[in-house]
Design goal:
heterodimer; A: 120 residues; mainly beta; 7-stranded mixed beta sheet; 4-stranded antiparallel beta sheet; 52% strand; B: 108 residues; 3-stranded antiparallel beta sheet; 10 strands; 58% strand; globular
C-alpha cells in the first residue's frame, strides 16, 4: 500500500533552517511528483511547491521563492523540503503529498504531517 | 495567481441532510484540475474528488462534484456522522496550485 512517512517534529529558532523528509513506499517513486503543503495553527492549507521525482524539476509558491528548496533521493524514495530564514509565522504542520501529474493534478496520498515550531 | 473563494464559511446541518458547498475561482479553471479534499481535526487532508467530478478511490457515492469554468460544487447527498469536517477545493493552473479557504460542515 502507498505510504508517505515524514520525519518528526522540530523546534527551531528564528533565522534557522529546517529540513523535513518524506519517505515513500508502495509505488514507483519516479512515476509521480511530490508536493508540499503547510497549515498554520487553526488556518487553511497553503501550497508550498512541487518536485518531479522523475527529473527533479521544481516549482515553488512565489511567496516562498528564495527560502525553500525541494529535493529527492531516488535511491531511497525520499523527498526533502528545506525552509531557511525561519520566522514565527512559519510555525505550521508541514505535509508532503503524492502528486498525480498525469491527468488530474491532485494529491492522492498524504504524509502524516510534521509540526515545525519557530520560537525564540 | 488564481484565487479560490469558498462559501459558506460554515454550514450547520443535521445528519441525513444534504450539503452543498461552493467553490468560485477568480478566473476560469480547467475542470481536469479542480479537486476537493476533506480534513478532520488532527488528520491530513483526504482526496475526495478530482477532475471536478470523479470520486477518488474508496470515496462513497454520497459525495459528488460538479461545475466548470469558475463555479464548482461539492454535494454530500445525506450527511453521515463522519462527514462533519472541513472541506477544501484546490486548483492547478500555470504550474501553480492554490487552495480555497475551506468550508466547515458542523453539526446543527
Amino acid at each position: 500500500q502507498v505510504q508517505l512517512v515524514q520525519s518528526g517534529a522540530e523546534v527551531k529558532k528564528p533565522g534557522a533552517s529546517v529540513k523535513v523528509s518524506c519517505k515513500a513506499s508502495g509505488y514507483t517513486f519516479t512515476s509521480y511528483g511530490i508536493s508540499w503543503v503547510r497549515q498554520a495553527p487553526g488556518q487553511g492549507l497553503e501550497w508550498m511547491g512541487w518536485i518531479s521525482a522523475y527529473n527533479g524539476n521544481t516549482n515553488y509558491a512565489q511567496k516562498l521563492q528564495g527560502r525553500v528548496t525541494m529535493t529527492t533521493d531516488t535511491s531511497t524514495s525520499t523527498a526533502y523540503m528545506e525552509l531557511r530564514s525561519l520566522r514565527s509565522d512559519d510555525t505550521a504542520v508541514y505535509y508532503c503529498a503524492r502528486w498525480v501529474y498525469s491527468g488530474s493534478s491532485s494529491f492522492d496520498y498524504w504524509g502524516q504531517g510534521t509540526l515545525v515550531t519557530v520560537s525564540s | 495567481e488564481i484565487v479560490l473563494t469558498q462559501s459558506p464559511g460554515t454550514l450547520s446541518l443535521s445528519p441525513g441532510e444534504r450539503a452543498t458547498l461552493s467553490c468560485r475561482a477568480s478566473q476560469s479553471v480547467s475542470s481536469s484540475y479542480l479537486a476537493w479534499y476533506q480534513q478532520k481535526p488532527g488528520q491530513a487532508p483526504r482526496l475526495l474528488i478530482y477532475g471536478a467530478s470523479s470520486r477518488a478511490t474508496g470515496i462513497p457515492d454520497r459525495f459528488s462534484g460538479s461545475g466548470s469554468g469558475t463555479d464548482f460544487t461539492l454535494t454530500i447527498s445525506r450527511l453521515e456522522p463522519e462527514d462533519f469536517a472541513v472541506y477544501y477545493c484546490q486548483q492547478y493552473g500555470s504550474s501553480q496550485f492554490t487552495f480555497g479557504p475551506g468550508t466547515k460542515v458542523d453539526i446543527k
